[in-house]
Design goal:
By secondary structure, this protein is α/β, with parallel strands linked by helices. It has helices at about 15-25, 45, 80-90, 110-115, 135-140, 150-165, 195-200, 215-225, 260-270, 320-335, and strands at about 5-10, 30-35, 60, 70-75, 95-100, 145, 175-180, 205, 230-235, 245-250, 275, 300-305, 310-320. β1 (about 5-10), α1 and β2 (about 30-35) form a beta-alpha-beta unit. The longest helix is centred in the middle third of the chain and has 16 residues, at about 150-165. The two termini are about 40 Å apart. Bound molecules: NADP nicotinamide-adenine-dinucleotide phosphate. NADP nicotinamide-adenine-dinucleotide phosphate binds near residues 38 and 188. NADP nicotinamide-adenine-dinucleotide phosphate binds near residues 148 and 185.
Amino acid sequence: MTKLSCTIVGGTGYTGGELLRILNTHPDACVTQVTSRSRMGEYAHTVHPNLRSTPAGNLQFVRPDDVARSDVAFLCLPHGEASTQIERWAGLADTVIDLSADFRLRDHAAYSRWYGSAHPAPQWLDKFVYGLPELTRQQLKGARYASGVGCNATATNLALMPLVKAGLLDTRMPIISDAKVGSSEAGAEATDASHHPERSGAVRSYAPAGHRHAAEVEQMIGMLGGAAAPLHMSATSIEMVRGVLATVHCFVKEPVQDKALWKAFRDCYQGEPFVRIVKSSTGIYRAPEPKILSGSNYADVGFAVSNDGRKVTLLCAIDNLVKGAAGSAVQCLNVMHGFDERAGLEFTGLHP
Ligand SMILES: NC(=O)c1ccc[n+]([C@@H]2O[C@H](COP(=O)([O-])OP(=O)(O)OC[C@H]3O[C@@H](n4cnc5c(N)ncnc54)[C@H](OP(=O)(O)O)[C@@H]3O)[C@@H](O)[C@H]2O)c1
């Protein structure tokens, strides 16, 4: 069978680099074009040295204007670009997967509220399926357009989904998610904040309140028919290059013990190829931890219950660039095209 041809738009960035790496080993898709305005003509491996001597690494960057038709376009552009360029990319590929926040929210009003301006292409919002297969697998099957996911939203969503589905949450009480995040979340472009003496060793509360990814968590709760609960989300940059650990504090209607939560988590994630329940009473890695997920598409989820059984702490660890971006995008491609959902995504991460 001929492989699907894929274009990576924004291939010098971190998510673009991860797509090149992942698609290198995909049995049913391969990258045929990769764009950059700043590194045009250079080999992809000059920007992503891990790709030396690989098919994707030996591609040369082309200008976005010079892209030819392909089966799939992955858009890895800064916020606000995909929504102004969507007509063009949809004309150049049958399948478009956009990794930015531009097409994640179904509700125009929610987009304006969270992103501070009206959506530039609101007529496209309904055409995109939210790209989290654990939530929208059925809608993704056969779809032409999928959005990406927010990495902190994904960690929060995967932590919370079992309780929302099981109807266990006390929705009068707040849900509070704090995400600890690595520096690659900010993308490849250097800034004052990413300068090594400033960033190294930081514990920087960069979004102490009102993190935008809360919009995707509210959307998830609504999609599952859950009642709206007051939701607070914050993010803290820590000493880590890749990874997100979401710690979500919430309250349940009736006191629960571990057994009920094991059931909710197993019911929710049974058969999911990339979600693992991590809760051990011994060992170093008793709870989800991003360190061992570097480069992998796994999301590790876990939980703990307070002594009175009313307060539950949920945990989810992911690699922001993989399950939080490029890996989820490839997982979506697999579902959209009926491939094995694990194709290209078998890498387990590293230990130590
Ligand atoms: N980093 C993460 O953890 C993460 C996780 C989930 C989602 N996302 C989202 O995914 C998207 C990409 O993130 P990233 O971290 O990969 O960003 P990045 O490292 O900053 O890369 C952005 C890429 O876009 C290209 N580009 C910039 N402006 C462009 C334009 N107007 N037209 C065409 N190409 C343009 C850049 O290359 P040239 O300037 O050379 O063309 C570069 O290759 C963002 O919207 C981000 O919010 C990121």
